Amino acid sequence: xxxxxxxxxxxxxxxxxxxxxxxxxxxxxxxxxxxxxxxxxxxxxxxxxxxxxxxxxxxxxxxxxxxxxxxxxxxxxxxxxxxxxxxxxxxxxxxxxxxxxxxxxxxxxxxxxxxxxxxxxxxxxxxxxxxxxxxxxxxxxxxxxxxxxxxxxxxxxxxxxxxxxxxxxxxxxxxxxxxxxxxxxxxxxxxxxxxxxxxxxxxxxxxxxxxxxxxxxxxxxxxxxxxxxxxxxxxxxxxxxxxxxxxxxxxxxxxxxxxxxxxxxxxxxxxxxxxxxxxxxxxxxxxxxxxxxxxxxxxxxxxxxxxxxxxxxxxxxxxxxxxxxxxxxxxxxxxxxxxxxxxxxxxxxxxxxxxxxxxxxxxxxxxxxxxxxxxxxxxxxxxxxxxxxxxxxxxxxxxxxxxxxxxxxxxxxxxxxxxxxxxxxxxxxxxxxxxxxxxxxxxxxxxxxxxxxxxxxxxxxxxxxxxxxxxxxxxxxxxxxxxxxxxxxxxxxxxxxxxxxxxxxxxxxxxxxxxxxxxxxxxxxxxxxxxxxxxxxxxxxxxxxxxxxxxxxxxxxxxxxxxxxxxxxxxxxxxxxxxxxxxxxxxxxxxxxxxxxxxxxxxxxxxxxxxxxxxxxxxxxxxxxxxxxxxxxxxxxxxxxxxxxxxxxxxxxxxxxxxxxxxxxxxxxxxxxxxxxxxxxxxxxxxxxxxxxxxxxxxxxxxxxxxxxxxxxxxxxxxxxxxxxxxxxxxxx
Length: 733
Known about the structure:
With 733 residues, the protein is of the alpha+beta class. Among the domains are: 3-36 and 477-731, Alpha/Beta hydrolase fold, catalytic domain (Rossmann fold, 3-Layer(aba) Sandwich); 114-191, von Hippel-Lindau disease tumour suppressor,  beta domain (Immunoglobulin-like). The protein contains 12 helices and 42 strands. Helix 1 packs across helix 12 (717-731). The longest helix is centred in the first third of the chain and has 23 residues, at 3-25. The radius of gyration is 27 Å and the shape is globular. The two termini are 28 Å apart.
């Protein structure tokens, strides 16, 4: 054996021993999951309302192998409990028995090519959608509204969980190579018959007088080639070519054409929508009830101008109903919600024009603003229900109360004219609500990262508490050594804005010791990512168990804190909130001497992979070690819709200024790059280009492509182990 091989083997042996010792005194990642599984009780329920709408029952888990049934009288909160439904005087029908079965969960174990689901929710209640990642954690992907349809992008092999709004497991599904249409009906989940291959029905007028179609000349799409070096069905490598449009690529220019009953065609003038962002080359339309005109959206490429336009059905003449302009960007994917009030000729519109996400009422006939509906230094986060008869809106908002985490969601109600605003939820936490069939009551489940769930029954009229239904029992979870996250707040770069995050300690934590700090980072501007709901946080804890303090916070440039906070990301993704993150960690360490900030590491995937490497390019005075997984290291290399949203169009020097590829020569510290060779989400060539730039700059680093893996390769067993080894190797004394 050569001296080099002997040294390398010795190093690996010492590293293995270090991780093994941590597993003895703390927990290994696998042990963590097993020890903490089935240790939280009374944490969720599904209300089954009886036909009279005045009472409901639910089943709740009370221990590892025990449960009870509870019957609630909604008006008084009177409660009866029993071990069977029969004792409560309720029939144990097949439907009720089915609802009591706990669905066996499984986690994502592979990432294949791009795929998707089309969910059809036939229930009268909303359901929640979660991706179960490679570590078994549930990543929320919002909700599927009652009696509505939703399409969800995913990858072959990814596992998804559908639950009721109060956490009852309804179904677990695994994506396949082709898009599946699935029906949610309360009896599990069923696959719908495949739709015939045909174009969507054109925009026919309600009175049948004409038809509107969207047409566009074909534009050649960029394609990328993915190499499968070790396919399961062949010894020889295979290639896969996929459409992959990138920032700056040419896009179709759709044209609306009206075809009258006599066959006469009228092109709709494009003077108000001459440069649309329309990757699929189509424009959808909404008809007015009288068929006099139709409405359509115009999202100008660059996302700084957004209009709702109206076109005359007979002449094609176009007018502006609503117009939004921004010097930075309009968050078109999340903040252009609208609700048409055709009977009164009005439109409820969402806008950030005053610096916060709020609702506005428009006259659709004249295109004039009638009034602002919601107002304040807080954002509307989601509209749940519009009651046209009562002219009131039910919605979720955050940042309403001083002293409370500004990301916590609360249920609110307001009248169309802006009067009668009322916050209907109370607990200091993040709230999930589900209404009774008649909407006269709602079940409110709230929690925090450091506060187990509390479930309450409240009256919809004024939000008053009827009774507490359940309070989660985490005694068993804490008894095995699991540590509760600690919330922490510090001022950001401007000295006034609060930055919120969490601190997680290992199970064998000793305040007399000094622990390296590892940051879990994802600074994608589309959301906020520090944990707000209670959960086991297995990903965070598995790193902490190696002898680290794990932290996560949301710096400036992320979402849900107002336009000024959000705009920091504009043409500046390399910022990633680092000035705020460093101040936050330093502030935490001032009163926590066990946080050793001379040894700080960072890890992240996708946008977080880009962020993690950037830490060692611009902030290596603070961060010493980084693990960057499947990073979009240069925004010119990634998908068009996400990157042009924040970096703008046309592609300019700002793309270069945020490029890890361009700045690779500035690397200082210890870097591990991971990528899946079959990644169809972020072009894996982005990581390869960074590797080449680092080699040309004569930089030392480590690189591990994961064969057969797709996006999120660091969450595979081998990727996760390599990440742990790398952090221990370079951060432990």
